[in-house]
């Protein structure tokens, strides 16, 4: 297989992202009340039916604000997920824009319709199915993309005039977009650099992720094939390629290269870590405190780096921490460099609910410290094998996070004083009192960390148990 590219590879230009300032209060007024019969007022009736028995009548009466915040965020996130967009680099500006979108969605007709069936407000709304590790089955097709023969949408036999006009405008824009995209990508034939294997490690609405061999180094890499025809915000891909080319850190799954293929596909080449996700280790083995400290120290270095560039991860969890067989720890799933090691059903909303900070749901003082909260929840994962509320539906989990704040930790009394203090400053509901990544890197708990090679026996044991060896 060969590809012809005429443009020369341009010199890289320096691109930067505005650094995040202090957390900004982007909360908006929400009006909700309880009527004389103890029922919520102010929500679409389809949402009330959706709540059903997931949130009790007493909880609805005692904390109606949390109910509304949870169900609004849940429905907005699931509606957005149906579009099948890839994840983009998150900044404080984008967070503020998202908050506005959520409020606009609340007042839109879509808020009064079923997410997945298209039924109106008079029809009961079916719930999404909760799957392994608490993730919801998406409604968009999960067909695997065959990169060698990309699917093409046949033109309609009898197109309407308005559709033809929109198509012409789209093509004009795409030509300019592709010109700019090629300036940022490698203009050479990707087959001269990488040999594709038959092994796919992820698939979804965006396309597939497959394993390839770097012909110059012999190392394995992961290549994400993005179908650009399915991406609404194409301009963000341009911005993010420019940013990611300058992102280099030992604790990030780094961007290596990019190619335009078949005019409408983008191949993003990334590092591959053969140890797999931290999830395998936390679910199949018991980690000691010094091993937990080792993982935390590495993840915090990645978080501190992202925050210094103005980027918020917003989905720190064991699934998004990948391991090398030597114990290397790297964070993935930020921007379009996200790739899935098995099942895209894990990615269900803008930040998985069980690891989500309260301010994500309530939209109060929402900033970079959401990543610190998620790190605290990931520590609970490393202790117990799963995050709090995993046995609850995502909607109920969102309510409990908004209503209760910090979750109870079952093994609390068994933990050392330094680990307790470390968790305390991670899971502080008051954002101003929650520690920053820089502060946590100096915490006493991390001074006890094990060498990274001490993680290798856990990785091997998990692989054997899961038959991945």
TrEMBL record:
EC number: 2.7.11.1
Any one GO cellular component localisation term in the record: cytoplasm
Alphabetical UniProt keywords: ATP-binding, Cytoplasm, Kinase, Nucleotide-binding, Serine/threonine-protein kinase, Transferase
Keyword Electron transport: no
Residue numbers binding ATP: 224
Domain of life: Eukaryota
Record InterPro entries: CRIB_dom, CRIB_dom_sf, Kinase-like_dom_sf, PAK3-like, Prot_kinase_dom, Protein_kinase_ATP_BS
Domain CRIB, first and last residues per copy: 20-33
SMART domains in UniProt: PBD, S_TKc
Main location: cytoplasm
GO molecular function terms attached to this record: ATP binding; protein serine/threonine kinase activity
Pfam families to which the protein is assigned, alphabetical: PBD (PF00786), Pkinase (PF00069)
Subcellular location: Cytoplasm
EC class name: transferase
Annotated Protein kinase domain residues: 195-446
Name of this chain's protein: non-specific serine/threonine protein kinase
